[in-house]
Amino acid sequence: MADTRTAPEAKVSASRSVAFDLLRGVLAKRTPLDEALAAHDGLAKLPDRDRGFARLLVATTLRRLGHVDRLIDKCLDKPLPTKAAVVRDILRLAATELLVLGVAPHAAVDSAVTLVRSRGFEPFVKLTNAVLRRLDREGRGEIISMPALAALPDWLADGWRAAYGEATAEAMAAAGFVEPPLDISVKADPEGWAGKLGATVLPTGTLRRGFDGRVEALAGFSEGAWWVQDMAAALPARLFGPVAGRRIVDLCAAPGGKTAQLVAAGAQVLAVDRSKPRLQRLERNLGRLGLSAATRVADAAEMSLENPAEAILLDAPCSATGTIRRHPDVPWLKHPEDPAKLAVLQDRLIANAVRLLAPGGTLMFCTCSLEPVEGPERVAAALASIPGLRREPIRPEEVGGLAELISADGDLRSRPDQLANLGGIDGFYACRLVRT
Asked: Catalytic residues (predicted)?
């Protein structure tokens, strides 16, 4: 194919090359997208518009990966050889441009062909051209008619169907297609900062505004007035009620959003994490905010305390499937067995947290997972096996009157299909437990 690109289109191809590198980083090297974005030197060198396009392209490709893979496979007479994984990733990006982002066919196809050739896969140039031309002719109607769940790995989609039913699972998956807004927790004066940032104050107290990819440039960031935190993730710390003067232990605390909430509200916090680098990141984050907390590198499943804790926040390691709208790489970095494996760890963490708790003390157990095995099932197991532990139900007024976020058992259970009128919410689970 003749290269008919104009100069502006040639510049855009640099953004496609970066998007390709990022996608390969996630799918081939299993690098979280946030880390790949931060580490890619070429991304920072792109003009703002091209940098935004590269980020959008790779994120959208991951959001719709199951869809585009199915459509690509329909266009192939036989599967691509393993050695041509590079070609498949280029096809994935170009298919997303054509079928989801609405990029002009000549730009998407020509750039993909050029990228295949530049990566040393000349024998696949004709195939790339043929597949993309066919997708351009036939794919738009097909992708529109596909269930949203088909964009996810089968194991994850099947699990959501079993847990939530077909209709809710489909709505949850569809919510993952939407670029989320920017959620902000402030140290003080939410109304004032909402005005300065052009944000809305949500019923729960979180600030929300559009996200343009330039967090550091926003008013108040450099002086440490606020930090980025999804409204759902901000709820567990609020569920302790007034915390001024209380001693609270934050287990698995890094990167420190909940620690910051508690300290800003006047609590005396011990932040614990088993990873020294992650704990150092927490300390840097608190430093930017002008906040401080005691810290300890320790395994929360085995550690001890000199004095029992009044309250413990346990944001346990999990599969993070509730964060897919913010982290579209999550479905493709996790394995089917991960939730069950993490559930074993969560049981150990809960058991030790209860041991660290003073009689009458509160344990807030939470995860950013939508998998029941990583939330309500862990609480049920704890209540059945640990004497002297009871659930303290969460009330609607504690979550800004948003009663739909409270389960029949009185726990916080948010789903990404909820609160669409407010801009959505991450999937999150929290249960308030009291040691009697």
From this structure: 368 (nucleophile)
